[in-house]
Design a protein that fits this description.
The chain has eight helices and four strands; from the N terminus they run αααββββααααα. With 257 residues, it is mostly helical. Bound molecules: zinc ion (ZN) (2 copies).
């Protein structure tokens, strides 16, 4: 077997001293200081785990009509309160189930979702009453990872010897930096929006479509579920059970929700 001789034109040599591409994390790893690289890795794994949690978990699907459910204390409370307030739950036109207040049918998931926020194509799942707090936690951890990755990517670039060869050699790192920067801005906006919504006990759907939602449009107060920022955030992050929103709704009499 005869091997073709290597030609000089096929190989481009970059002196290591002129084009250092070691980031701060790589340098610390090589020097045996593993604390920050391991912490960064743990954060990445945490954000990946949260991604799969919000993507795979039940966002709060309405599985049965309220009347057909087993008697659970919260549901009983909700039903008795319904009778008191004379609220009539609307029946979904797609799955034909009675929708609890703040639920909405998602065409992509083919389910009604309790305290519907939005259907997220990034996680390919709805964001609803069950997974909304995990979704916000995912955004927060992801933002920390991105904010840490920005200076790490920047530290791998060397601007002392700018040239076309330098640009080719650092192209991948430059693109990575730009992608991380764009995602960071998006993540800041998303996290800010969802923290605002959570602190006011409202959802993206309710915020964007108030004029189409009867229980908000016909209500005398701006937001019937708002209990103040602290209580709203406590309820959002620290309440594991599903909430019968009908019980918190001011008495309006005879409305279809
Ligand atoms: Zn439905
Ligand atoms: Zn959905």
């Amino acid at each position: 077997m005869v091997r073709a001789p290597k030609t000089e034109s096929c190989t481009v040599h970059f002196p290591r001293d002129n084009f250092p591409s070691f980031s701060d994390l790589q340098r610390q790893e090589e020097q045996g200081d593993l604390l920050q690289p391991l912490l960064f890795l743990a954060l990445v794994l945490c954000s990946m785990s949260l991604y799969f949690v919000v993507s795979l978990m039940d966002p709060g699907y309405v599985e049965h009509d309220e009347e057909e459910k087993e008697p659970v204390s919260d549901e009983k409370e909700a039903m008795s309160s319904q009778e008191t307030l004379n609220l009539r739950l609307r029946r979904c036109g797609y799955c034909l189930l009675k929708q609890p207040m703040r639920a909405r049918h998602c065409q992509a998931c083919r389910h009604c979702v309790r305290r519907y926020d939005h259907h997220c194509p990034w996680i390919y799942n709805c964001v609803g009453e069950r997974n909304h707090p995990f979704f916000v936690a995912y955004l927060a951890v992801q933002l920390v990872v991105l904010l840490w990755a920005l200076p790490v990517a920047w530290s791998g670039l060397d601007f002392e010897h700018p040239s076309w060869a330098w640009f080719q050699y650092n192209l991948l790192l430059l693109l990575s930096f730009l992608v991380v920067a764009v995602f960071t801005v998006v993540m800041i906006l998303l996290l800010g929006c969802h923290l605002y919504l959570a602190s006011h006990n409202t959802t993206t759907w309710e915020f964007m479509s108030r004029h189409r939602i009867s229980y908000l449009r016909d209500c005398e107060v701006e937001n019937p579920f708002d209990r103040g920022i602290f209580l709203n955030l406590w309820q959002f992050f620290c309440t594991c059970r599903l909430i019968a929103w009908e019980t918190l709704y001011p008495e309006v009499g005879g409305h279809t929700v």
